[in-house]
Known about the structure:
single chain, about 375 residues
Amino acid sequence: MRWRIGGAMTGAAMCATAFALLWPHARDAGAVLSAQDDPARLSDLRLDSAFRNDPALAAANIEAALAAHDADLANSFIDLAAARGISTPDELSQRVAAAVREENSTESMAKRFFIGLVTGNADDGASLSGTVAGDLSAFGDVRDIMRESKHLAMGEQTDRLLLGLAATGLAVTAATFVSVGGAAPVRAGLTLVKDARKTGRLGEGLSRWVGRSARDMIDLRKLQNAAAAGTLARPRQTAVALKAAIRAEKAGGLVRLAKDVGRIGEKTGTRGALDTLRIAEGPKDVVRAARLAEAKGGQTRAIIKLLGRGALLLTAGAFNLAVWVFSAVLALFGFLSSIKATTERLTLSWLQRSKARRLRRQLAAQSAGSGAPA
C-alpha cells in the first residue's frame, strides 16, 4: 500500500509540473483560437507577444521606415506605439512629424498627383487622386485596354488580368457618374487593384482569383475590333465602343473586391491598401483586412508590416494550437486523477490501520479475559 500511495503522489507531482509548464502556451493558444474570426483581436494577441519579446520593436521599425523615406509607415508605427502605451523618444517623434509635413507639402502632393494622372501608377493618396481622376475620365481604363488589346491582336504577351480590371473599371466609371459619386470608393479600390497588378504588388493567390473572375467578362473578338478602331484622342467615344465587348453582369466579384479595397484605403491610406493586396491570398483576406482597418485605422500598416498575413488569420495550424490546449487539459486531468487515487489509497490505508487496531484491541481484551482467575 505504501508503494501504491507513493506512486500516486509521484504521478500527481509530475502532472502538476507538466501543467505548470504547459499552461502559458495553452492559455495563449486558447486565446488565439477564440480570436481567429476577429482580425483586430487576433492582431492584438500577436502584437502582445511581439512587443513582449522585443520592447524596442516600434522604435527600430520607425528608424527603418524613415531610412526608406516612408513617412507614412513611420507615422503608422507612432500611432501603434501610442495605442499600446509604448513611449517613443521625442527626437524620433519630431523626425517623423517633419517627414510627414514634407510629404504632405503642396508642392510634393501636386507633383505626385500629376505623376498619377499621367502614368496611372499610385503609391500614395496624392498619386491615387491623379490616377482616379484619369480613370474617371475613362482615359486610364481606355489606355490600358487598348494597350493590352493591341498586344493580343499582334500575338504578343498580354496581361489578361489587367485587361479584365480595366474593363471592369469602365463599367464602374459609368456607375460612378450615374450615382453622382456614390460608387467612387469602388472606383478608387479598383484603381488600386489595377495599380498593384502593374507594379507587381498583387499577391499571387489574389492574382489567380482576379484572373478567374475577369476571364468571362470580355468578348475578345469584339474587344480587338473596338481597340483597332479606337483612339486615345477620343477616350469617351472609344470607351463606348469598348463597353460593347464587356459583360458587365460578370463583374460582381471584382466590384465587391474593389469595394473592400476602397474601404481599406479610406482608413489606412493608399499604401496601406497596397500592402494588403501584396499579402492577400484571396477576397476573404481582403474582407478581413477591411475589418482590421476599420478597427485599427492608421495603425494598420504597422500591424501588417510586423505580422504579415498573420494579422488577418491563423497562419499556424489550428491543430498545433489545439495540441497545446489538449496537452494542458490532459495534464490537469492526470493531476486530478492522481489526487483522487492518492486520496482513495490514503483513505483505504487509514481504514485498514483502524480495522487492524480494533482487531488488536479485541484480541488483547480476549486474551486478558481468558487469563483472569475464575
